[in-house]
Design a protein that fits this description.
Layout: E1 5-10, E2 15-22, E3 26-34, H1 36-39, H2 47-67, E4 78-84, H3 88-105, E5 109-113, H4 114-120, E6 132-137, E7 142-149, E8 152-158, H5 164-174, H6 181-191, H7 212-227, H8 234-260, E9 264-268, H9 275-288, E10 291-293, H10 305-316
Parallel strand pairs: 1-4, 4-5, 6-9, 9-10
Antiparallel strand pairs: 1-2, 2-3, 6-7, 7-8
Helix pairs in contact: 2-3, 4-10, 5-6, 5-7, 5-8, 6-8, 8-9
Bound molecules: 5'-O-[(R)-(carboxyoxy)(hydroxy)phosphoryl]adenosine and zinc ion.
């Protein structure tokens, strides 16, 4: 079969990214332009600034992607783009760009769900084999999902309140750490010891998650210590929080592996860049004799390579989109 090259576009939050992906699993060229340095000044992503920066930069990002290869637009078989979920204004920049390229160069258009992207990033490591268990941990998602086949998802458990990435960011914020908080907590925790006494989520056998109790406990602890004029031992607090947050992921994933008899586990989403999480899941996989896949760190957080991977099964099914689809800020994949 002829090789398939997909040009993929991701602009759902504060990264403008474009990739060329071969056969759904090989990253030929990727550029990721992050806006973190700008949004840092505001303590979080400012949607209007994000969409303006996407429009200013997206053409340059496209030029950059092609400049790193011998390919031209003629070699591209389809254009893929993230259409949900995310910031509406940011998504729309990518979508309009993708529609224009598709129309001008007469290439089929494929719309991709952002979370499918995070999951399919695992194809960049090793082609996913089904059935498998997926743990999705991002800024908006904490989910345990069984995949029976391409795009066949069955949710076993999800967060009842806050997503784990969101909690990392809020805990970091109350500790006066810069945006985005997850990587800051990750770094600090390495230097600390889990000496703060924080509540563990409820010890039940359900596969749903709840992180709001842990989040509130950290916020209250910091406020109380501040009121008393006490210094926070930030590294210790980061380690205390992170141990509980990640150990809960491990506990529930172990339960899900037992319940499903699954021998394959993949992890997806920004929080899977976390060092402690990666170490603990490697231990779990060894103990449970499970094949584990976590994307390399650069493919854990937002990037267009994962969108190209997730578009490939849709390309094979000729699941193409016309120009009428729109962005959606929230949309369930499962
Ligand atoms: O998947 P992602 O890039 O965007 C969404 O789709 O939400 O995930 C972003 C989330 C943020 O909450 C960020 O703080 C968190 O992933 N994150 C991390 C790390 N890197 C990113 N959390 C913990 N440790 C990290 N190293
Ligand atoms: Zn993401």
């Amino acid at each position: 079969m002829k090789d398939v090259y997909i040009l993929a576009i991701e602009s759902s939050c504060d990264e403008t990214s474009i990739s060329i992906i071969k056969n759904g699993c090989e990253d030929i060229s990727t550029t990721i332009l992050t806006q973190i340095d700008t949004h840092k000044n505001y303590g979080g992503v400012v949607p209007e600034i994000a969409s303006r920066m996407h429009s200013e930069n997206i053409t340059m990002v496209l030029e950059d992607v092609f400049s790193k290869t011998d390919l031209t637009i003629d070699d591209i078989d389809a254009i893929a783009v993230t259409y949900a979920p995310g910031l509406l204004g940011s998504l729309l920049v990518g979508i309009e760009f993708a529609k224009t390229l598709s129309l001008v160069y007469k290439k089929p258009l494929i719309k991709v769900h952002h979370i499918a992207g995070h999951i399919y990033a695992n194809n960049l490591v090793d082609k996913m084999e089904f059935p498998l268990l997926a743990l999705v941990v991002s800024g908006g998602h904490t989910e345990l999902v069984v995949m029976e086949d391409d795009y066949k998802f069955k949710v076993l458990g999800q967060t009842l309140d806050d997503a784990i990435g969101e909690v990392y960011d809020k805990v970091a914020k109350v500790m006066d750490l810069p945006y985005p908080g997850g990587p800051q907590i990750d770094k600090l925790a390495v230097e600390g010891k889990p000496t703060y006494d924080l509540p563990k989520p409820m010890n039940n056998d359900e596969l749903d998650f709840s992180y709001s109790g842990l989040k509130s406990a950290v916020i209250n602890l910091v406020h109380n210590e501040k009121q008393r004029g006490n210094e926070i031992r930030k590294a210790d607090l980061a380690a205390s929080f992170q141990n509980i947050a990640v150990d809960e992921l491990i506990r529930k994933t172990k339960l899900a592996l037992e319940q499903t008899n699954s021998k394959r586990l993949i992890i997806a989403g920004g929080v899977s860049a976390n060092k402690y999480l990666r170490e603990e899941f490697a231990k779990l996989a060894e103990k449970e004799n499970v094949k584990l896949s976590i994307p390399p760190i650069k493919y854990c957080t937002d990037n267009a390579a994962m969108i190209g991977c997730a578009a490939y099964p849709l390309y094979l099914k000729k699941d193409f989109s016309d120009y009428t689809f729109n962005a959606a800020s929230t949309l369930d994949l499962f």
